[in-house]
Amino acid sequence: MPELNQHGQLVNDPVPDWHGAGVLTRTPLTGAWCALEPLDAGHHAADLFDAYALGDDSDWTWLASIQPESVEATARWVEDKVGDAALVPYAVIDLRSGHAVGLVCYMAIERMAGSVEIGHVTWSRKMKNSTLGTEAVWLLLKNAFETGYRRVEWKCDSMNVASRKAAERLGFVWEGRLRQKLVRKGRNRDSDMLSIIDGEWPQRDAELRAWLAAENFDGEGRQVRRLEEFRT
């Protein structure tokens, strides 16, 4: 709880023995429905090109990237992320097919602040209306909090209502709008900021685990209860 210091000033909660969060390494994370593999152009570019080819330019409107037009262009796009030391990039692997169907990264990693962002979220239409996106984000959240992070962020274009709603469904809390944060593809971008903090994580973890449980899906893979129904 906030308290008064020796000067009579209100100061915020102490964080005892804080020495920063751990290093987020490029190691695999595995769930029941999907796995996150360290991104690799040789292993994942062809699968990702095929997955993204099921969509069109409308899937890329609010992203920094444009839809790659070939396997080679996809490989170059992937290599840029793999070569960026500021990112921890993953391919999302559908465990049913064994193929990569999306891409996501840790970014904006601030170990001493205990803050990290889930970004570069590039799902393909093979992930639409499936458990894969939810489990992929759960795996990233779980790993980040277990590595000692106090805060996990989600930022999206303020026009990208679907991204904000997806984050709120997962339990991220809207914090505000960063006005004129970027110029992207020649247009202004205001960024909506959301987060989950460590004190909220045990409840969010329980909700996500309950929704992802095998018994919450029927024989055709349809959810029995919506994620929001597990929220108390």
Automatic annotation (TrEMBL):
InterPro entries: Acyl_CoA_acyltransferase (IPR016181), GNAT_dom (IPR000182), Ribosomal_N-acetyltransferase (IPR051908). GO terms for molecular function: protein N-terminal-serine acetyltransferase activity; protein-N-terminal-alanine acetyltransferase activity. Residues 34-190 form the N-acetyltransferase domain. Transmembrane segments: none annotated. It holds the Pfam family Acetyltransf_3. This is GNAT family protein.
